[in-house]
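As a warm-up, study this chain.
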Amino acid sequence: MNTQAVELDPRAVRAWAQGRMIFIELTDGRQVGFPAARFLLLANASDDALAQVELCLNGAALRWEELDEDITVRGIVEGRFQLPLPLQLAA
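Now compare it with the structure written out below.
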């Protein structure tokens, strides 16, 4: 059995906003979503501003130009968020 660690370098092929949720589709076909409320700048952004999400760095990050916000795909996959899950979403 190979116990050597493999470096995780997830990449997204697509990103979109649906309501107050942000979704990414990874190169391996997985889809991951998170509430905009998990990041300071996204939490207060309008729905229209959230919808302007773009992929950058060859799918390694998400970018919202109008908000001047960048979030790595790796951080999303690893569950590294700025804010805790809001109580209304945790229930």
